Amino acid sequence: MTTGPFDLSGKVAIVTGGNGGIGLGMARGLAQAGADIAVVGRNETKSAAAAAGLRKLGVKAISVTTDVTDKAAVDAMVERTYRELGRIDILVNNAGINIRRPPQTLDPAEWDSVIRTNLTSAFLCSQAVYPAMKAAGGGKIINIGSMMSIFGASFAPAYAASKGGIVQFTRSCAVAWARDNIQANAVLPGWIDTDLTRRAREEIDGLHDKVLARTPAGRWGAIDDFAGIAVFLASAASGFVTGTAIPVDGGFSIMG
Q1: Most buried one in 77, 212, 228, 241, CB count within 10 A?
Q2: Span 98-115, mean pLDDT?
């Protein structure tokens, strides 16, 4: 049978932070295209529930409880995924947190926590999957940045720094691993309706209305809006696309 450029049958994807929000939206898209999924997160119950939902789509899915800021834990997660699912073709680095404080009141420990979770984890996971991808003849890395990779926010200095770093790290991997047929790209979400942004709406007065006013699409994003971009960047369709940073924000970042 001839398969199309978006078909992921026989492929295996690791999705960090895949048990909710944007990560789960991407995991669903990849599963619908045929990929088997390793859902990686800290909340064991939530990850197990997400994996069970993905299995209903007709693919294999496992949940792996992992601290993605710890190298030994990441190495063990990759080894288990390879052992149970047989290969590793796709990595989605989506794990992330935010601590909302202006720079002058942000504690160094809070800064370190955000940088480790959002940026260092992407480095550790990418480094850990590289041997399997190289041995397989290629792979796809999708790093989740943010619209704050493009512009700053007074209330999120560590988050913005981590997400700016994600874009540059993505470009470095794209250049370093192109010879191994590994493409690395970043996705920059705008304002998406998730648990993280629901807290932001509680903490930042008027945020909801400001987002709607600036977004040409006239709505907040939904996690299912990330299924298509995940499949594109994980599939043969994007074989000559690498080092990019693609906003998925309903047009928010192009408005003045």
Answers
A1: 77
A2: 96
